[in-house]
Design goal:
This protein is α+β, with helices and mostly antiparallel strands and about 575 residues long. It folds into 4 domains: about 100 residues, Uridine Diphospho-n-acetylenolpyruvylglucosamine Reductase, domain 2; about 130 residues, Uridine Diphospho-n-acetylenolpyruvylglucosamine Reductase, domain 3 (2-Layer Sandwich); about 220 residues, FAD-linked oxidases, C-terminal domain (Vanillyl-alcohol Oxidase, Chain A, domain 3, 3-Layer(aba) Sandwich); about 60 residues, no CATH class. The protein is built from 21 helices and 19 strands. It is globular and about 70 Å long. It starts with a helix and ends in a 10-residue tail after the last helix. The structure holds flavin-adenine dinucleotide.
């Protein structure tokens, strides 16, 4: 940090006092704050390297002007109407993992939805659950498993992540093989539009009708709301599908398990499989063998989840960071592996049958071994945390012991893992690994492969683990992400990160669509005529394009040129 920077006072934006008073009138003085100590806590987002970098740069843009905690849908409507009238930008906020900061230096209001944490309805006949926006996966599981049901999957941050905030992203699960991701399990949403009006999708769009059917009547607006990162509305209710659960009615999880850098206690680290479930691990000779197995198992129709984890095991399954490092250096976990999760839904014998099919496929492909009491029992024992992670993630935050920030997460055919691996290796050669685990997914390792929807498609993932105290490393993690997007677009492999429209990627990659950004800009104008709903998060307006900071344009254009795409002028 330069001497000048060290002395710099971090500025922050403020709301006009009369607007603050109006918001206070809606929620009461207890549920609103502009106290510096409070708003500052909303400004560092756990997996967003840019939010860390801003702290080093003493840039106060990420600090909201005010945080307000509504309790009802009507309060959200009133807040949004006031902010709309005064042209003040806002963003909904749940835990603040990513993409939830203010999108401009203008005074921004965060609607923290933590008081809206109730399950509203469990429909055991039609197999749906309807929840408020702060309900997390753990709550849904706890209530539904008692009834022999569950929602079908979980991201690797179960107890933190909310169903509603995942709707902003599509939501990847460890059981995508059978149930597909969250976005394909949503039956209905209710959103408060940026104008303050309510919009309901699917069958519940007809007043008094239940939520059981996701499209119609009339045009299907679901797609414009899904993955919009709060720019087309705030989800206030969400209904998702339920499926049969044959595991324990109450999940046995290692309770109060801390995730600390250098401390562990074995009692927190052992995870048992839920009853009537089975998990089988294989170690493949190489990526080609692994992908062949994944394809064939997907098509066979067996299993709940089918994933390859690579370097992730070094985090999830290691109690301390020192263990993560040691195991990574020693290649303790296999480079090419896969696990299948199975459930005995129709009978206990289903488990035996599915395992038999699995082994038949794996042996038919050849070149793989099973972890067992005979072959690498110590690896099998160490992999135990995955026994539970497909349903209730307990170990995910070990990824953040250093910093899990900056990711490539393209979406494509299962074979894409090969193209991903090659390009990740190019990036490692170009920018150099920031940490030893960055090499996971490189030339001697598999990217994480999530098989989705019986193999119709897959997500593959590689990540950076920059030192959060080193601004240069954080900037390089952002460069990796930008390079990855440019590479994937240029080589026609996938859309920019997460395959979602997220600025500045939307505007800087007009190859997507083509010109998806122009269409989204029009959509934004319809939903949000006054540009208040997280403006510029999904797509920049023409006016916002004029104010893209020079370093951002330089970064994106330099990465475009690096991969052979033309530099862009973003002047409208
Ligand atoms: C270790 C780790 C593992 C992870 N694994 C996975 C995984 O396996 N699969 C996966 O999909 N993700 C995964 N994630 C990412 C994380 O689960 C998602 O980013 C999650 O949606 C963030 O939840 P949050 O509640 O903190 O939302 P926030 O970060 O607070 O918000 C996320 C976005 O949702 C918007 N939003 C919040 N509430 C609403 C609402 N009510 N209506 C409209 N928009 C809203 C916000 O404005 C923001 O744009 C992982 C993260 C970590 C740290």
């Amino acid at each position: 940090m330069t001497e000048r920077n060290a002395q710099k006072r971090i500025g922050r934006s403020r709301l006009a006092p009369e607007v603050y008073k109006l918001l206070e009138g809606i929620v009461g003085s207890e549920w609103i704050s502009e106290d510096r100590a409070v708003v500052e806590t909303y400004s560092k987002h756990s997996i967003d390297p840019a939010s860390f970098l801003m702290k080093h740069q003493k840039d106060g843009t990420n600090i909201p002007a005010c945080v307000v905690l509504p309790h009802t849908v009507e309060q959200i409507q009133s807040i949004v109407r006031i902010l709309n009238r005064h042209r003040i930008p806002y963003s909904p906020f749940t835990n603040g993992q990513m993409l939830c900061g203010p999108t401009s230096p203008a005074a921004t209001v965060f609607l923290h939805l933590s008081r809206m944490n109730h399950i509203l309805d469990i429909d055991e006949d039609n197999l749906t659950i309807t929840v408020e926006p702060y309900v997390d996966y753990r709550q849904v599981q706890a209530e539904t498993m008692k009834r022999g049901l569950w929602n079908g999957g979980t991201p690797l941050a179960t107890s933190l992540t909310k169903i509603a905030s995942q709707f902003a992203f599509a939501g990847i699960w460890q059981t995508d093989l059978k149930y597909s991701n969250l976005s394909r399990n949503v039956v209905a949403v209710e959103v408060v539009l940026p104008t303050g009006e309510i919009l309901r999708t699917g069958s519940s769009a007809i007043s008094g009708n239940k939520a059981f059917h996701e499209y119609g009547p009339g045009p299907d607006l679901h797609g414009l709301l899904r993955c919009s990162l709060a720019t087309t509305g705030i989800v206030t209710k969400i209904t998702v599908k339920l499926h049969t659960w044959v595991g324990d009615k109450v999940l046995k999880t290692p309770k109060d398990r801390p995730s600390l850098r250098s401390w562990s206690d074995p009692k927190y680290d052992r995870a048992e499989l839920p009853k009537n479930h089975r998990l089988v691990w294989i170690e493949c000779a190489d990526l080609k063998t692994q992908l062949e197995v994944l394809y064939r198992v997907c098509h066979s129709g067996i299993g709940l989840g089918l994933n390859s984890c690579g370097v992730y095991s070094a985090y999830y399954c290691s109690q301390t960071q020192a263990m993560t490092e040691k195991r990574t250096l020693e290649h303790f976990f296999p480079a090419y592996n896969a696990y299948i999760t199975m459930a005995g839904i129709t009978s206990e014998r289903q488990l035996d049958y599915e395992e038999k099919v699995f082994r038949h496929i794996v042996d038919g492909v050849g070149g793989s071994k099973y972890y067992s009491h005979e072959y690498k029992p110590e690896v099998l024992e160490a992999l135990a945390p995955w026994n539970l992670d497909f349903v209730r993630n307990n170990f995910g935050y070990r990824m953040n012991r250093r910093t899990y920030a900056g990711l490539w997460l393209p979406l494509g055919e299962i074979d894409m893992a090969k193209a991903h691996q090659e390009r990740w290796q190019e990036a490692l050669d170009e920018f150099k690994p920031l940490y030893m685990t960055d090499e996971g997914g490189g030339k001697n390792d598999t990217p994480y492969v999530y098989c989705v929807n019986r193999g119709h498609f897959a997500y593959t993932e590689t990540d950076n683990y920059p030192d959060p105290l080193d601004p240069q490393q954080l900037a390089t993690a952002i460069a990796y992400m930008t390079y990855g997007a440019a590479r994937m677009v240029k080589d026609r492999i996938s859309g920019p990160p997460l395959n979602l429209p997220i600025e500045p990627f939307t505007t800087f990659f007009p190859e997507v669509g083509p010109n998806t950004h122009l269409f989204l800009r029009k959509v934004r104008g319809v939903f949000d005529p006054n540009s208040v709903a997280a403006p510029g998060r999904q797509v920049f307006s023409e006016e916002e394009c004029k104010h893209i900071p020079e370093p951002v344009s330089q970064l994106f254009n330099s990465m475009r040129e690096k991969v052979g795409l033309e530099a862009l002028s973003t002047e409208p």
